[in-house]
Design goal:
This protein is mainly alpha-helical. 80% of the residues lie in helices and 0% in strands. The protein is globular, with a radius of gyration of 16 Å.
C-alpha cells in the first residue's frame, strides 16, 4: 500500500469541486427548512459508502455492460462539464424531486446531491489515473468535510454570506471546467488510437 500525498490531495480537490458541498449550502438550508431536521451522520455515511462501493464495483459493472473506462471517462467529462456550467452560470440543468420529508437525509442529500452522477463518474475517472488507496483516503476526507459542513451549514452561511457562497461556487466551477477539458482530452486520445 503506497499512499502518495499529491494523488490524495488532487483526488480530494477534484471530488470536493464535483461534490460542491459548500456551493450546496443553500440547498441544504432549504431542505432543513422543509423537513425540519437532516441527519448529518446518516447522510455522510451513506454517501461515503455509495462512493467507495462504486469505486470497487463500478468498473466491473461497466465491463458487464460492455463499456470501457475511457468511454465512461469521456461521458463523465461531459457530466462534469455541465455541472461546471451550472456552477459558473448559476443555472439549473438537473432538478431533483424533494417531496419526501422522511428520507431527506438519504434522498436527495446523500444521493444524488453528494454521491451523484458527477461524483461517481469522477471516481471511475480518477481510478484510471490514481492508486485506489489514495482515492479511498480522498473519499473519506471528503466525507469528513461533508459531515462538518452539514453539521455547521447555518453557521457557514452566516459567516460567508450569500455573496461568498456564490464566489466559491463560481471559482470551483471554473476549476471543474478545466478538469472536464483535461479528462476529455486525455481519454478521447485513448479511444481514437
Amino acid at each position: 500500500m503506497q499512499l502518495e500525498f499529491k494523488q490524495i490531495f488532487t483526488a480530494f480537490m477534484v471530488l470536493f469541486a464535483v461534490i460542491d458541498i459548500v456551493g450546496n449550502i443553500p440547498i441544504i438550508i432549504d431542505l432543513r427548512k422543509k423537513v425540519g431536521h437532516i441527519q448529518s451522520e446518516k447522510a455522510s455515511l451513506i454517501a461515503g459508502v455509495i462512493m467507495i462501493v462504486f469505486l470497487f464495483v463500478g468498473k466491473s459493472l461497466l465491463n458487464l455492460i460492455g463499456i470501457d473506462v475511457n468511454s465512461f471517462a469521456v461521458a463523465g467529462a461531459f457530466v462534469i462539464f455541465f455541472i461546471a456550467l451550472e456552477m459558473i452560470l448559476g443555472i439549473t440543468l438537473y432538478k431533483d424531486d424533494e417531496s419526501s420529508a422522511m428520507t431527506a437525509s438519504v434522498f436527495p442529500l446523500a444521493f444524488p446531491l453528494i454521491a451523484g452522477p458527477g461524483s461517481l463518474t469522477t471516481l471511475l475517472s480518477l481510478r484510471a489515473e490514481f492508486e485506489i488507496e489514495n482515492i479511498i483516503v480522498a473519499v473519506i476526507s471528503n466525507v469528513i468535510v461533508i459531515y462538518i459542513v452539514l453539521k455547521t451549514s447555518a453557521k457557514i452561511e452566516k459567516l460567508i454570506g450569500k455573496n461568498g457562497i456564490n464566489i466559491i461556487r463560481k471559482v470551483f466551477g471554473v476549476i471543474l471546467l478545466a478538469i472536464a477539458v483535461k479528462l476529455f482530452a486525455a481519454n478521447i486520445k485513448a479511444l481514437l488510437v
